[in-house]
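Page 42, continued from yesterday. The earlier attempt failed because a stray header line got pasted into the input along with the sequence. Redoing it now with the clean sequence only.
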Amino acid sequence: MVSIKDVAKEAGVAISTVSKVLNNYPNVSEETRRKVNDAVERLNFVPNQVAAALSSKRSGRIALLLKLNMKTQAIDEIDMQYISGALGMAQEKQLDCITVFYSMIAKMNLEEMIRYFASQNISGIVIFGMNNDDRVLHQLIDSQYFKIAVVDGATTNESTSVVGIDHYQAQIDVAEKTIKENYCKRILYIAGMRNSYVTEEKIRAMEDLCKKRKLKLFIRNGDFSELKARNLTLRYGKNKDIVVCGSDLMAIGAMKALMDMDIFRPVCGFDGIILMGYVGKQMNTVKQNFYNVAAEAVRELARLLTGSKGRKVRLPHTLVRMKYEDIIC
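This time it went through. Structure tokens are written below.
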């Protein structure tokens, strides 16, 4: 079967250009339109369900694409807050909404992924938990087939916005507060997942802060795992003055390890999850409102669906010490 990719190769243009010609978009030159139509005729290409769905001009159905954290047995509060916030805003904006888990599409190539979403009349996608090595998702964004809002992403284009807090500044804020409150010359930083834009931003923040304050920085990846953070702290925490963690769950693992070693070291986290109020020993942490982040991502997607261009949307964060009394009803 001849695919839209074959037509693009034959015509010497991008796949997105073929789609625009098939759907009679106005911003295509006559020469390009002729090349594509000639290629369609030579290859006897019959537009598949992707082109049909895109040309139907249907809008108002969006997908929430989530990558679940499989490295912990703890209930993933963050994903539940994301889903709740997104569904609430989708209802307000009168958008039909489905939830898709990344594991369902992880083995698809670009064309298969486009066909999957287009066959369900999806016009926009909110992506949560995307990493730098999610190659096909990056291709999907570059193709601009769909309007997309990426939570904690890096790249924008005309059809794609990114929404989230300033992780670089937030990491500096919580680490600097903990440093000022305690004697500190050596820091153990337990970072999140490798190949993550957010993790890279936080590591850059710690490197800049420690360079500015002339502190020794030791970095290890904890992959957002409480167990891995615990083991790293057992191994490296004793001869460090402060343990800074890229997530609350890792901070809890680090604190538990220090308690087992019967030594005190200040620990700070990142996220502000409810669990910190139960076991966090009032550690400093960054509080980001995941419900609001997801709601704002859907709001931004609705803006894109009305023809606006992609942009970067920054939301506020606060520094808190989670207390048990603050989280019980």
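Notes: The CA atoms of residues 169 and 309 lie 26 Å apart.
Reminder to self: strip header lines before submitting.
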